[in-house]
Amino acid sequence: VIRPEPCGVCGSRIRFGKTAIKCCQCQLLLHTKCQEQCPSLCTPRPHHHAWPREGVLADFAPSTPPLVPTLVVQCVTEVETRGLTETGLYRVPGTEQLVREWKRKLLRAGGALPALSSVTDIHVVCGVLKDFLRGLKEPLVTFSLHSAFLRAADIPDDAARDTALRHVVSKLPPANRDTLAFLMLHLLRVSHSPDCKMDVLNLSRVFGPTLVGHSSANPTPLAIMEDTPRQCKVVAHLLSLPPNFWRGFVGTEQENLVPM
């Protein structure tokens, strides 16, 4: 090391003259002793040095499938590593200033992310993930498919509803579909943790507005009022689909990147 830089795993500075390890793909730099704790996911650096401040999900996705942004994978990995014993995961807010600061830091890093293990409060990591998804130009459930998702969730017959939801999920842009699948598998794990006290209903209330949103960027007050309960219903029914359906999009390899 010639210029002292922070380790991408533990966050401590690697001092001048010390030996370090650098990934030739994503340029992640770390202490030799931190190699075992290195994040499993590695994506090549984007051509630009930083991600845009806003954009659609595909603007943040890697170039090879599964098309899940590194920021999403790293936040989920951190939450599942040390957050599944926290009560109110995703419901309890993190400190707003820290959430904004870390989101800005991760976007500026452009895919070669600083270590989230140095964030003491896991609710801040949850806040970064939610804030990233909320800040997209359109939600994961795209504007054009919004009404199709709402209609599918309204079908009273369970089997017919599941078939309709599977069909409309498959019509999402690949990055949106893969990221939705990755998040559904994560939220199912959260719902199965007794310590979190966040069942499917609680999670659907938190993530309905974030993942489903509205049919346009500027909804009317009436649309906001009408959409809110239906957004939650969509997420609850998506979480009722079998995990193997979602694994079909992200693959077993991607599944294994996140600790069980």
Describe it.
By secondary structure, the chain is mainly α. The protein has 2 domains: 1-45, 2-Layer Sandwich (Wheat Germ Agglutinin (Isolectin 2), domain 1), CATH 3.30.60.20; 57-248, Phosphatidylinositol 3-kinase, Chain A (Orthogonal Bundle). The chain is 48% helix and 4% strand. The protein has helices at residues 70-82, 96-109, 122-134, 146-154, 158-170, 174-191, 200-212, 221-239, 243-255; strands at residues 5-6, 13-14, 20-22, 29-31. The protein has a two-stranded antiparallel sheet with strand order 1-2. A two-stranded antiparallel ribbon has the order 3-4. β3 (20-22) and β4 (29-31) form a beta hairpin. The model is unreliable at 44-49 (pLDDT under 50).
Structural category is: mainly alpha
Number of strands: 4
Which overall shape is indicated by the principal axes computed on the Cα atoms?
A: elongated
Gyration radius from CA atoms, angstroms: 19 Å
